[in-house]
Amino acid sequence: MGETSTFLLLTAAATLAISGMLLCNRAVVRARAFARGFYFLSVALSLAALALVLAGTFGLPEGPAHSRLLRILLFRGWIVVGVGISTTLLLALSASTRVRVLASDALRAFLTSAYVVRGLCFSVSISFFCTEIGKLAHDAEMRQFFLQSGYAVWFMYFIMAAETAGAIGLFVPRMRLPAALGLIAVMAGAIATHARNHDPFSDSLEALHLLILLGCIVVIGLLRRTIAFRLAKDGREEPALNWPERSGTHS
């Protein structure tokens, strides 16, 4: 099975498994524990990926085992993307006036938890930091790639600065939406560049992975705002749904 097929299959499997787990759970305490656990797992996997990238930069031998482990960590074992897509889909269903997915208190506790978006943002931010480290470590190759793609060298450094600024912005609640939108444009451009160069689609998988997660961050934020407005209109305020999240909201 090719890299693209494997990526899509594992993404779909993770989404289905996590969606099933969330829908089957009926305990609010457990749902909140799931959300906190997801955040800390995202942090652990992201920092492990960063450590492995730094180790490779400083001369750690890069054999087949290293490459396989790095690929798993870069995609966070498909757990983060599975949670992102599952949360987005379930919130979209809950935003529909015809589908009352949020009728379950346990499911609502997970979907409205600030830990979920924080975990997604942390994972994406560290991914971009890993990318910038990789670009700096292979500066000559990256210059050549940009030149062969029809771009000026200065544009490469502009993209690196934009990615770094966006990654930092994801850590700031009030900057998350514009930061995510900016990074979506950059990732869409990266995929389009590979397509124009007739590169294998597998070369775009990391950009596609980040594009999906960034899309989830944006859509989750907008859906939470929509649901919060609907609840307020019905006389049932739900502060945890606000975008950006209020500081101190951990439910």
Condensed summary:
The protein is 75% helix and 0% strand. It is built from ten helices and no strands. The protein has helices spanning 3-24, 28-57, 64-74, 79-95, 105-111, 114-137, 139-148, 153-169, 176-196, 205-233.
Could you please describe the fold and organization of this structure?
Helix 2 runs parallel beside helix 6. The chain has helices spanning 3-24, 28-57, 64-74, 79-95, 105-111, 114-137, 139-148, 153-169, 176-196, 205-233. The chain has one domain. The chain has ten helices and no strands. The chain has 251 residues and is mainly α. The radius of gyration is 19 Å and the shape is globular. The model is unreliable at 237-251 (pLDDT under 50). The longest helix has 30 residues, at 28-57.
Share of residues in strands: under 5%
Terminal residue distance:
41 Å
Rg for CA atoms: 19 Å
> Which structural class fits the helix and strand makeup?
mainly alpha
Mean pLDDT: 88
Number of domains: 1
Number of helices: 10
Strand and helix order: HHHHHHHHHH
Global geometry: globular
| Largest pleated sheet | none
Helicity level: over 70%
Q: List low-pLDDT spans.
A: 237-251
Give me the count of strands: 0
